[in-house]
Amino acid sequence: MFLIKKYSFIFITMLSLILISACGSDETSDNTNGSDGEDNKQNISEEVEYTITGIEPGAGITVTTEKAIKEYDSLNGWSLETSSTAAMVTALEEAIDNEEPIIVTGWNPHWKFAKFPDLKYLEDPKGVYGGAENIQTLARKGLEEDKPNAYKIIDQFNWTVEDMESIMYESKDTGDSIDAVASRWVEDNQNKVSQWTDGVEDVDGVKVEFSSTPWDSERASSSVLAQVMEQKGFDVTVTPVDPAAVFEAVANGDVDATLAAWLPATHKDFYNKVKNDIVDLGPNLEGAKIGVVVPGYMDISSIEDLEPAE
Questions:
Q1: 236 bridge partner residues
Q2: Hey, what CATH topology would domain 47-130+293-305 get?
Q3: CA 117, CA 119: separation in Å to the nearest integer?
Q4: Contact 139/257 with Cβ under 8 angstroms?
Q5: Mean pLDDT of all residues in the chain?
Q6: Which is deepest, 35, 52, 198, 301, by most CB within 10 Å?
Q7: pLDDT tens across 147-165, in order?
Q8: CATH architecture observed for domain 133-287
Q9: CA separation for the pair 202, 229 (Å, rounded)
Q10: How far apart are the first and last CA of the chain?
Q11: Contact at 8 Å (CB) between 110 and 289?
Q12: Residue 60: which H helix or E strand, with range?
């Protein structure tokens, strides 16, 4: 009997110690996780030096990101480093190669999402970047009367994010020019081309000029449609300019159309200035998106997870 009581006492004592240890461990774990979460936000913000890596000054996403920095308390004291799209992509690739933190301005369609499928947009609770975007076609007033066949084919042009990204990624992957890849795409997608050219008569050298931004996404759309129109006998010129000039050129009648208007958010300010002086033909691509983007290995999900510099 004494032995039974003795071993029962030992068992109860050991069980109590285990339970106390477990409870203490949970409390410590909870406290540590909370601390680690805050430290992680601070570490990421410090490691990227409170900087978002951007693209060209004046680009729609540049203007919107400048607004986001003013709007979010978590971005107080942050800066947007502007340079060029190529420089932004180079910085992103180098960071991913070394698994280092980086925050960049991003948008779909872009080939980087095909090359790096783990890229993710940070949540934008304040909606500064808006929701899904369209890329819309704008034409000058009088185009339908002056060049009805050009107007018809431009109006009927419509494709997808996947179409555009496939051209951009193949160009990047192979080193071939956007024009060369676009030519192959046109050959391989005659079903879509036939929808754009439906009811369009052949012409003999009718001149058509587009204004466009100097980015691969717009190079892809302009090159594809230009080559399709050239097959119908049009003489097409694509003039790359800054975003503001894209809209002004159409409104002033200096060019016939543009395929490069990101709406309703990205180019809203440019569009509002000229909307009464142009013809809006609606989306040529739906489901575009803009925002700030990070590699998938970064343990962060929202703009509000960042820490202010001040």
A1: 208
A2: D-Maltodextrin-Binding Protein; domain 2 (3.40.190)
A3: 6
A4: yes
A5: 88
A6: 52
A7: 999 999 999 999 999 999 9
A8: Roll (3.10)
A9: 9
A10: 71
A11: no
A12: helix 60-71
DSSP state string for 166-226:
HHHHHHHHH---HHHHHHHHHHHTHHHHHHHSTTPPP-SS-EEEEEE-SSHHHHHHHHHHH
Task: Tell me if 61 sits within 8 A of 268, measured CB to CB.
Answer: no
Please state, in angstroms and rounded to a whole number, the distance separating the CA atoms of residues 174 and 165.
14
The answer to whether the beta carbons of residues 152 and 166 sit under 8 Å apart is no
Q: CB-based contacts of 259: which residues, under 8 Å, 6+ apart? A: 135, 137, 154, 157, 210, 212, 218, 221, 222, 225, 284
- b/e per residue 225-249 (b: at least 16 CB within 10 A): bbbbbeebebebebbbbebebbbbb
Identity of the residue numbered 114 = A
Task: Please state whether the peptide bond connecting residue 101 to the residue before it is cis, i.e. omega within 30 degrees of 0.
Answer: no
Please state, in angstroms and rounded to a whole number, the distance separating the CA atoms of residues 126 and 129: 8
At 39 the pLDDT is 57
Tell me the one-letter amino acid at 301.
S
Q: What pTM does this model have? A: 0.73
Give CA–CA dist 274/271, Å, rounded. 6
Domain boundaries, the chain: 47-130+293-305, 133-287
